[in-house]
Write a structure and sequence with these properties.
heterodimer, A: about 525 residues, alpha/beta, FAD/NAD(P)-binding domain, 7-stranded mixed beta sheet, 19 helices, 19 strands, about 15% strand, globular, B: about 400 residues, alpha+beta, Gyrase A, domain 2, Elongation Factor Tu (Ef-tu), domain 3, 6-stranded mixed beta sheet, 6-stranded antiparallel β-barrel, about 20% helix
Chain lengths: ~525, ~400
């Protein structure tokens, strides 16, 4: 039961952005309620003990893009924030060879050289050039997009600042930025590398969560986005949070509550209440009404604009834009409980290759062919798999000697041609397991339990439309000042007091937190304006 | 060939990069893994195992052993009962620290000292007519430090009674057939134990610990990870935060226990009846409030740090490798108020932190100082806050 039915602010959805938004609002003194439909907070960032002793990161599975300022401003360390190092990256090859990248730069150069002397010295140039672009994008990532359609002095000032920032960028860096934003990961990588395995390994960042192949225009943007993470000061570096991403959202939950936010579980919000274009609160599915002058939706744009409120009360342009906003989830998860570590024949008894991501992405062509299946409405016969045996990094995830393996899988399009996911779930799981078996002989014998999470499951359980893990595809017309719709990129909505803070707003998605924080700033600015 | 530890034959099999350094004249692993940070996270999130055998070890035994040590050591060893251990320093008669070490009291009349430097002649020369003897057993024992949140669970599998030990206590037990002494001590500031084993039994005991840790996240760690952990734990290190007063050329190189943050070792020295070397000077220092320095932690302002680098066109470094040099500290008026003895980026605290020596007037937690760094080959200062040591202090350390 809630202590009160009147709040200063109500946040709809207890995913990571909702929790962060609620924490910031509570920290600023607002009496804040966060409402979560499920019995656990976290949204798509949950860890669940599906088999006794085995903790599955059901959906999202690693940390990279979380904005560093949030860690400090919400004092997350004191609530248990602990991103653990994932010290290797491993990519098996179809001929039995492999690419094994580790924490030692020079050893990595040697490893690349084993595949291509040409690519060995390209490695540093590639990272340098990519990081230069990341430096340019970073300030834009960490602030609300300017309203390019606005004419207020603030809007004009924000646009002037953006123009000034971009004017200072060196021509090559600007050109690289535009190439990444508009072109393909393949074109960019081809500039540097010749080796299939190197390009396969790197280009997988250009497809994750998105219905593009590495050779598609637009995959450069996805590659750039995934390079923007800056875990412990390293662009593009990933970490595994202690206890999984569910462990991370539990940290957020404790932080939010420490600032005074109240969290209401197992309560679905039916609708956002408004009167004369002004928000008054929310109605729960059981009919309870809770009141607040500020309501922030952390749900995706479709739910925020077309389900929580009556679209007839919104401008037609906005409704049209949200209707055509592309979700088309294309990713799935297959999570395994394992009886032991897989073996990779070329590495004999070694197991240190499993301490980070295990990317089944032997070449760009492999990824592109996997995408081909999805283009025509089916899941990949030989999918891209981004695996991680998380119990190696954090032994608390599984019983001693046993392991959990999280496998992010593409492509798995939400809309299947001629079938549906309830029918195909097991066959899809078999496809993934067979693919792993082909690289890691004997893999199937290790499987104690298998959990298949299809895009339909993501939609049903988490509520992300069409199972899109980013709450809206990474696609240039859906980014920055167009996320989620032209004119509505600054976290407000046409209903006064009703805001959006989900990953469908800038700079979402991924477990990034930026939308939650930036939306809270908008709320607080607007409240301050009202007071003054 | 340089001397190796009793565990070396096995440990070398695990040293992937064959990176060894020399510690106390012995071969000691810098790291086993290619990543010291990975080893560090074993200490903080699962369990790590460190070969601390190169420490010098002495038995100090005899009917008068307690009386003897009570007159030499700064901390009152009489409070250390059999089955307990004391970390302490010993000083010269001017009240300056000579060295530090841990005394493990095995019985009323038997103490085992572990320390970073040889000390045989120093203690021998002070025995006078007392019934006490010192025996160098530096090579007789191997010592393994099993540290981290899972250390107790792992130890419980092979030495269940040791897993019950209270902080800074010890017991005699067996691991397999080998007699061992296990203490609840370490140099990481985390839950942890140290296992002392006769050199001849060293390998089977190491194998037993490794086997118990199999599948439980146990990883070997080397000096790089240890030095990261000790800064978070606020544990001073000889030749970094202090050096032996006996070997100093000037008083600037000398420090009193109070100046090193060991005021807690001095409880009762105004009133009790225990004379010890340096007592008069230390009492005077306390009475006259003449300490020149305070040992504190510094936590850098992350936003200011990152902004300085961003403004310079650089990516702000977050390197967990401790700096091996001093960084000057200034107040807002630009006056020097001390120096950080070392700085690092702490992965668990997500901040740049350091141990620092500051003038007592700015030692209050929350005081603002400015830390000198070089950015693009220019001196800059980063705002920082003074904090009490240790900066990382999990409940499990003493619970």
């Amino acid at each position: 039961m809630t202590k009160s039915r009147n709040y200063d602010a109500i946040v709809v959805g207890g995913g990571h952005n909702g929790l962060i938004n609620g924490a910031y609002l509570a920290r600023s003194g607002l009496n804040t309620l966060i409402i979560e439909r499920r019995g656990v907070v976290g949204g798509a960032a949950v860890t669940e003990e599906l088999v006794p002793g085995f903790h599955f990161t059901t959906f999202s599975y690693a940390l990279s893009l979380l904005r560093p300022d949030i860690i400090h401003e919400l004092d997350l360390v004191s609530h248990g924030f602990m991103p653990l190092l994932m010290p290797s990256g491993f990519s098996p090859m179809e001929n039995g060879d492999y690419l094994l990248m580790g924490p030692d730069h020079d050893e990595n150069v040697r490893e690349i050289m084993r595949h291509s002397p040409h690519d060995a010295d390209a490695w540093d140039r590639y990272k340098h050039d990519l990081w230069r672009v990341c430096q340019v994008v970073k300030p834009l990532f960490d602030s609300a997009p300017p309203n390019i359609f606005g004419k207020t002095p603030e809007d004009l000032e924000a646009m002037a600042e953006l123009a000034s920032h971009l004017r200072g960028v060196e021509p090559k860096v600007m050109h690289d930025l535009v190439r990444l934003l508009t072109g393909s990961a393949a074109d960019f990588l081809d500039d540097y590398f010749e080796s299939d395995i190197i390009k396969g390994y790197l280009s997988s960042s250009g497809i994750i969560g998105t219905k593009v192949g590495p050779m598609s225009q637009g995959s450069g943007l996805v590659l750039l986005f995934h390079s923007m993470g800056e875990h412990d000061g390293h662009f593009g570096s990933w970490a595994f949070h202690k206890g999984g991403n569910g462990g991370f959202t539990q940290v957020l939950s404790r932080a939010a509550q420490a600032y005074g936010a109240e969290i209401l579980l197992e309560s679905a919000v039916d609708s956002v209440l408004s009167k004369d274009g002004v928000t008054t609160g929310v109605a729960l599915a059981d009919g309870t009404e809770l009141h607040a002058p500020v309501v922030v939706s952390s749900l995706d744009p479709r739910r925020t604009f077309l389900e929580l409120v009556d679209p007839r009360e919104l401008p037609t342009d906005l409704v049209d834009n949200i209707r055509r906003f592309r979700f088309q989830g294309t990713s799935a998860k297959v999570n395994f409980a394992l009886d032991g570590l897989p073996s990779y024949p070329a590495l004999g008894d070694r197991s240190d290759q499993y301490r980070g991501f295990i990317a089944v992405s032997p070449s760009m062509e492999y990824l592109e062919r996997a995408f081909d299946d999805a283009k025509y409405g089916w899941y990949s016969k030989r999918p891209f798999i981004d695996g991680a045996i998380q119990s190696i990094v954090d032994p608390d995830m599984a019983p001693p000697g046993k392991h959990v393996m999280s496998c992010f899988v593409q492509y798995a399009p939400y809309h299947l041609k001629g079938s549906d996911w309830d029918t195909e779930r097991d066959r899809f799981g078999d496809t993934v397991q067979a693919t792993l078996e082909s690289f890691f002989p004997g893999f199937g014998d290790l499987v104690l339990h298998r959990e298949v999470v299809t895009p339909l499951d993501i939609e049903r359980v988490v509520g992300l439309s069409e199972g899109n893990i980013f709450a809206g595809e990474f696609f240039a017309p859906q980014m920055y000042f167009f996320r989620p719709a032209p004119g509505w990129s600054q976290y407000r909505t046409p209903i006064s007091g009703y805001y959006q803070c989900g990953s469908g707003t800038h700079p979402g998605g991924c477990v990034i937190g930026g939308p939650g924080k930036l939306a809270s700033q908008q709320v607080l600015r607007d409240l301050a304006r009202k007071v003054s | 060939m340089i001397k190796t530890s009793p565990f070396y034959e096995r440990l070398r099999e695990f040293n992937q990069g064959e990176l060894w350094t020399h510690w106390a004249g012995q071969l000691s692993a810098l790291r086993y893994d290619m990543s010291a940070k990975h080893e560090y996270f074993a200490i903080r999130n699962s369990a790590g195992l460190f070969d601390t055998s190169p420490l010098y070890k002495y038995w100090i035994r005899g009917k008068d052993a307690e009386r003897f040590l009570a007159g030499v050591l700064t901390r009152d060893i009489r409070a250390c009962r059999p089955g307990q251990a004391h970390y302490t320093v010993w000083c010269d008669d001017r009240g300056f620290v000579l060295e530090d070490g841990v005394f493990f009291r095995h019985s009323e009349s038997e103490f085992l000292l572990t320390c970073a430097r040889p000390n045989f002649s120093y203690f021998s020369a002070l025995m006078g007519t007392l019934e006490v003897e010192i025996q160098d057993v530096s090579d007789a024992y191997g010592v393994l430090a099993l540290q981290g949140p899972r250390s107790r669970d792992i130890l419980a599998l092979i030495a269940p009674e040791a897993a019950e030990l209270a902080f800074f206590s010890l017991c005699h037990t067996k691991i397999g057939p080998a007699a061992v002494t296990i203490s609840r001590t370490g140099y990481t500031g985390d839950l942890g134990f140290e296992i002392f084993v006769g050199a001849d039994d060293a390998l089977p005991v190491l194998d037993a610990v490794l086997a118990a840790g199999e599948g439980r996240g146990l990883r070997l760690f080397g000096e790089q990870a240890l030095l990261m952990a000790r800064i978070e734990a606020g544990l001073v290190l000889i030749d970094v935060e202090f050096g032996s007063s006996r070997l100093a050329f000037t008083d600037d190189e000398r420090f009193t226990p109070k100046e090193l943050g060991f005021g807690w070792m001095l409880r009762g020295i105004d009133s009790d009846d225990r004379p010890f070397i340096g007592r008069t000077a230390i009492r005077r220092e306390i009475a006259e409030k003449s300490s020149r320095w305070s040992m504190v932690g510094v936590v850098l302002d992350w936003a200011h740090h990152d902004q300085l680098y961003t403004d310079a066109g650089l990516i702000a470094p977050k390197d967990e490798t401790p700096l091996s040099y001093e960084s000057m500290l200034y107040d807002d008026a630009g006056q020097r108020v001390g120096y950080a003895t070392t700085l690092m980026y702490s992965p668990v605290l997500q901040r740049h932190i350091g141990m620092a020596r500051v003038r007592p007037e700015v030692a209050t937690a929350g005081s603002r100082v400015n830390v000198e760094v070089t950015i693009n080959h220019e001196y800059r200062t980063v705002g920082a806050e003074v904090a009490r040591l240790p900066l990382f202090n999990p409940k499990r350390k003493t619970a």
